[in-house]
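Q: Hi! First time asking for a complex rather than a single chain. Here are the components, and I think there are four in total. Is that enough to go on?
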Amino acid sequence: MEKPLSQRPAPDTAARERLVMAAIGLFTRKGYAATSVREIVEAARVTKPVLYYHFKSKEGIYLETLRETMEEFEALLETLAPSAEPADFQVQRFCGEVFELFLKRIDVVRLVHSIMYGPPQGAPPFDFHAAHDRMVESIRGLIRLGVARREFRDGNEEGMTLAVLGAFNVVYELRMIHPERGVGRDALDWALDVVFRGMKRAEIRQERR
Amino acid sequence: MEKPLSQRPAPDTAARERLVMAAIGLFTRKGYAATSVREIVEAARVTKPVLYYHFKSKEGIYLETLRETMEEFEALLETLAPSAEPADFQVQRFCGEVFELFLKRIDVVRLVHSIMYGPPQGAPPFDFHAAHDRMVESIRGLIRLGVARREFRDGNEEGMTLAVLGAFNVVYELRMIHPERGVGRDALDWALDVVFRGMKRAEIRQERR
DNA sequence: GTCTATACATGGATAGAC
DNA sequence: GTCTATCCATGTATAGAC
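A: Yes, that's all I need. Here is the structure of the assembled complex.
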């Protein structure tokens, strides 16, 4: 039973959305503790009680922004399904797709990264471990597949998982601290080339570049 | 012309040192913005003016703590000198030594990591890039050496540097988020085994485990 | 749902005595 | 160099009208 638009004082149902956008921008650029509620509401062009109405505290809007953006990452991980392609292709495609998503949301990645690995900064706890573990397990699963198919060598599954994850990590991390160097997808492929060469059995190895 | 100890009101020259210790502990556990001056002085068992006397602001004691701890890392990097050993041994030893230092000061590493890669959190700027770049260049230099000696393959120096750095990064990062899993030096060696195998020329490659 | 106005705690920093 | 006492800006959050 909503009133017709014409009778509402201000048809600003977008206020909540603007708040989320503003909050993401500020939290990612300044960090949780360094961002004040006043800054958020000014950026969203609303007043303080609007924020406290829709969320109920600074922690509330923070957790909500994280929840909304993490859903994107979860969704991408869901789409992963083992295929008949060579295992290294699958690993490379998976890493590449997640990497593209990271590039698109590099600011959020920066925030999540600093909270996952760094001190809590006064921010309420948020569970990133589950998503991170799922990503690691996805890679490990593809590597197990490659080992079972005798594409990858046997006996160092953990080392291979770490090497792949490391190649992925180092590239997006370099991108965060040196955006001007344009470290991108090609750098990821170069690093993965080295790693794959170290993973493949001698018999089936062949150059791909 | 100092007075003899007996005549000083309180021989507490350790106050400054206690402040630095307390500041490191709090900044690393809570982050810069989330740590208050009151907390620091209470932990150091002094009063506020003592902090403002020795340093001159919150930013001052923060920068001083960072400066003091970064000197350790710089010192370790200085000790690196190319030797006649195989290049992969040298890379492994270098990574291992830096890794040991990281483990010893894992809390400081956590703070530096989150500030390097994350939002500034209201903290004054501090130049970590120089030290980080030097570390990367050290690895790249050893890899160039290996290539020149025909131990490593030619044509993907950048990929090899990234792969090595990635193996190093991923291991200490995992250690930070999952200390209970005991990810340690052995995991680093497993990952590097994969990477080295991908770097070595086929002719000279041989198992080392 | 959105406003004005305000409560109330905590923040960083300093004055001035010793 | 260290204290007590205090200043003042900023912080989060809310009351109460519309």
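A: The radius of gyration of chain A is 22 Å. Let me know if you'd like any chain examined more closely.
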